[in-house]
Amino acid sequence: MKMIDRYWTLRALRGTPLFDEKWYKSRYPDLRDSRIDAAEHYYEHGASERRRASSNFDTRRYLRLFPEVLESGQNPLIHFLRNFDKDPRVCHFESELYDPYNTYERLERSGTFDIDWYLSENPDVRESGADPLKHYIEFGYAEGRPAHPDDRLREQAYGIVNGDIPTPQLKPLEPTSKSYIYENYVEDSKINQEVLRLQTKILQDSHNSPLFSFIIPIYKVSSAIVQELIDSLMKQSYLNWEACIALAYLDDEALRQVVEVAQKSDPRIRVTIMSENKGISGNSNAALEMARGDFIVLVDHDDIISPNALFEFWKVLNVQPDVDFIYSDKDMITESGGRRFNPLFKPEWSPEIMLNANYLTHLNALRTSRVREVGGWDSSTDGAQDWDLFFRVIGQSGKVAHVPKVLYHWRLVATSVSAGGMAAKPYAAAAQLRAVKGGLNLLGWSDAIPEFADDGLIRINWQNDLSPESMLVFVGSTGLPSWAGTTGAKSSVFIEVGEDLAQRINDAIAASDASFIAIVPDLLQPITDYWLREILAPLCNSAIGATTGKLLGLDAQIQDAGWVAETGRLVPLFRGMKRAAYSDIGFANWYRNVAAISFATLSFSRDTWSKIGGLREGERPDFEFTQRIKSSGFRLLYNPFVESWIDYAHTVERYLFGEDANRETPSIEWNSCFNVNLIASGSHGINIRRLAESSKEHRYGAEAFYVAGRFDAKEKAEPALLISSKPKEVPTTTKGRSRSGPSKPLNLLFLVPNFSNPFYGGIMTILRFCDYVARKGEATIFIGVLGSSSEVAVSRTIAAAFPKLASVARIICVSDRTDVNELNIPVMDIGFCSLWTTAYLLRDLKKCNHKFYFMQDYEPLFYPAGTTSKIVEATYGFGFHGISNTPSLASLYQSHGGTADYFYPSVDRSVFYPNCNRTEVRSQSSVKTIFAYMRPGHPRNCFELLVAGFRDLKDAYGDEISIVTAGAPWSLRDYGLEGTVNHLGLLEYQETSTIYRSVDIGVVAMATPHPSYIPFELMACGTAVASTRNAGTDWFFQGGANGFLFDYNVASFVSVMSRAVDDAEERRSIANSGLKLIDSRFSDWDASCQSILDVVKRTLT
Q1: Residue 421: which region, alpha, beta or left (left: phi > 0; alpha: psi -120 to 50)?
Q2: Could you count the other beta carbons within 10 Å of the beta carbon of residue 509?
Q3: Is the dihedral of CA 375, 381, 385, 389 positive or negative?
Q4: Do 653 and 724 have their domain in common?
Q5: pLDDT, tens digit, 9 for 90 and up, residues 941-976
Q6: Residue 822 and residue 944 in one domain
Q7: Residue 214 pLDDT class (50, 70, 90 cuts)
Q8: In a domain, 182, yes or no
Q9: Euclidean distance between CA atoms 430 and 426, whole angstroms
């Protein structure tokens, strides 16, 4: 009998694609060159040794999910083959969630797999020519080859954190424990004294410094802990604050002494001694009575705050002065304060999370007048008093701002709810229900009742049943499910996936008289009998545009819980995590708002569907529809108590839309309903984004191979309507001159590369010109964006800087393979290209009368001399008329045989301006602050020269100088700059100007004949500029009259910078000369834009 079982087992193994004999032997080194039969080995040894049967069947995972198989001794793959169509729990391991190539497709981008390092460490792989990522997945991991230089550290950390596991069993590239990752994040996000001093210096220059009043009710607590809190206040880089302390516990003499000493030592600390303990709300109101500040900041008596906390709040108010409520991220600290852990990286303002979690708590700043207007704290909600106050202060205005930084450290002590749950404060439970009921009333659910669920979270009893007014729309390929008639819905309809899906859904909705619609896949199985009632119920609130629920896969893990926007792409929230998982963005069982909803579970009202015009055809009509709902002002709600599972092995999007649906889907928002500090991998849950990623060198060789095969550099444009290409002298454009032209508005097309920041120098100049032309009514603007696939996303990005332009411009998304002559656009009177890649599109465009090359740098120098640089250079021979932003660039364009004009760029003086007291403020500081424009991977910015030069300069001056940089993050550690340079990260547009106004010297090195826009902005802020001695930029720096100029070597750099640091009088003279130059020639953007328009009109006539 045993022999018969063995025979049929081996036959089954050899007959299923889930056992790959060739892959199995090549995967494991001990089998690779042997004559062992692979199926026999897996049957006798491999399964018990937890070896994978193929890339699509993970034995170890299967046995972990089904321990009964392990206990019975059954072969796991055979168990799967016998039960996959019988037991819905059995996970189909062909799923893309477990396929290595799909699971790890983003590894190189994330930095977790280092291709260059892997090849350098494994010369056999390099010499074989094998794909390194594929090699690692199939062989390298099994052979023990690390994927990244940090792998060994990760394994050590895993062993430390999980001491009960003697041998770490890490899956390939799977993130290790959160505590290890967060410890690294804490280390990377530390702010040193140099940065804090710069923040204080910035604030001294500011005209707007609101007073923040800390509200600190103190009751039974250790005096040492209160001292730590006071110390954290004293360390704030923002100095305009006061502490309003209400001391309600007088039996502890040491505690009273700490408070009184603090009061005597600093007049900003104000204390009231309570005659009795009035409870947390009464004590907080007593502190509020003392507050003189514009905003109150809530701090518990046993916690601490980061030294930059108030500075970050001040930055928000500079950009959004009308907000009523500001909140930050937070973490916890041990009672001794020795370790930080358990971070909560909060999403943007999400009213619905507040229905079962006060996620806003700490650190908060509330507008004082608004707090007093609503009557302060309510003692009947003690235990949830802040929760209740937040609801009332925010109300329905939604004037809320989020600082995505950990600024608050919640101490884990025995009497805090964080430590002991409700047992620590049993009165808090009833108070929470009262607070949430008040919030429900404010948010529009006056009939709803909050209740505690079995898991201890609050759940809303919506008190309605909209099922009888609803229609269920099942999409898929199998037909109506058996349970379709059991939900109480008015009607059900099946729509097969395929062509015109959106239109067929619209037709079904239009043909019905249902008031509410729920769209789900036909393979969906509800877990509860109230599933439909629960997903429809929140729609009684007109502010809710659509709802979704929690869809589980066959492995009982979350497959869909709504989608969020992460760095411009939509990603599934909580995918691959447990049903009730807690993550760094909170519980999967919290209500929350999302950025988009898929057909996994989607419900909405007929009114909403009608208002926004129904569904539209496209690759993902569900995403397009729900993002349009959100952008129309409605909220999208995820309800975690709507639970179902899907009887399908892959993702629901693959079932409905095919394999192509697994590609990244762009979002109309850059970040929405998520947090910039996190990554949602789409298969492994949510992980913390590392702040100090290893720097990646630009792979010019690989790029050249692509460019050579893609761009045909024939040196002529489409001959339809070419302007003259004869060289001519470069005229000096007269500001403000206007030529007469056609009376009707022109069609103007501007081709640009994809962008996510409308304030970036070159892009901003283009958008500024388009905005100027649109405001004057001179042309209808078309903006073609190379590399974007979302017109709505581009329009929203433009609106951040130029709302008028965004409202009138027509956005066209194109790729480098787009046939531009197939675009649905009218004939263009004027066509502009910008980055060289867009020149190829403009060259081929027939429907364009006059073509222009908008030059803002000499782009062949962006690349090493070779294939790519020559293909870039060839675009200057396409015959377009050049319009450049410097005279030197116009001359270079002419040297390639073209005609060219130039204009002078300007500076936005409403943003970039000097401080009245700039001389006094700078002279007071003995430490000279240097801002450096440093970008690794961009040779034209002379990064290598600056690295070497600043190392030597810092060695020479030590603490007498402070060097800062900003922009996209890169690893200081990789270049030996830790302790030499401080990276401030990405700055808001207006925040940049505050930095420029506060530094003593700004350094911008350029190897191209364009000085960059940054020296203009620095000079406009009254800051002395140092740059490279460059013949192409001498027209601007005037031989050093308005700038410290150094040659392209370290010795010259250190010598010139030493002079700039030491000689205050010369530094002041250089700064004044630069400021005068900006005022006299570069301060009128309208005139600059008119200069461009003059050239265009002259060409047309």
Answers
A1: left
A2: 20
A3: negative
A4: no
A5: 899 999 999 999 999 999 999 999 998 888 888 888
A6: no
A7: very high
A8: no
A9: 8
The CATH number assigned to the domain holding 517 equals 3.90.550.60
Same domain, 525 and 401: no
Looking at the fold, whether 896 and 925 belong to one and the same domain comes out as: no
What is the distance between the alpha carbons of residues 602 and 546, in angstroms, rounded to a whole number? 7
CA-closest candidate to residue 1074, choices 1044, 1100, 1032, 1029: 1044
Per DSSP, helices labelled H in 516-612 are 531-536, 606-611
0.90 surpassed by pTM: no
Nearest in space to 386 (alpha carbons), one of 374, 396, 375, 378: 378
- Between vectors from CA 763 to CA 760 and to CA 768, what angle results, nearest 5°? 105
3-class secondary-structure state, position 640? strand
With cut-offs at 50, 70 and 90, classify the pLDDT of residue 494.
Answer: very high
Q: What is the pLDDT of residues 584-615, one digit of tens each?
A: 999 999 999 999 999 999 999 999 999 999 99
d(Cα 285, Cα 379) in Å, to the nearest integer? 10
Q: Please give the single-letter amino acid code of residue 108.
A: E
Tell me the CB-side half-sphere exposure of residue 831, using CA atoms within 13 A: 29
Token pair for residue 810? 């027509």
CA 953 to chain centre: 35
337: Cβ contacts below 8 Å, ≥ 6 apart: 228, 304, 409, 411
> Which residue from 295, 154, 297 is spatially nearest to 233, judged by alpha carbons?
297
Nearest to 182 by CA among 577, 583, 673: 583
Identify whether residues 166 and 218 lie together within a single domain.
Answer: no
Q: What domain range is 740 assigned to?
A: 718-902
Residue in the block written with tokens 């063995």: 6
**Residue 773 is assigned to a structural domain of this protein:** yes
For the chain, the distance separating the N- and C-terminal CA atoms, rounded to the nearest angstrom, is: 96
Backbone phi, psi, residue 604, to 5°: -160, 170
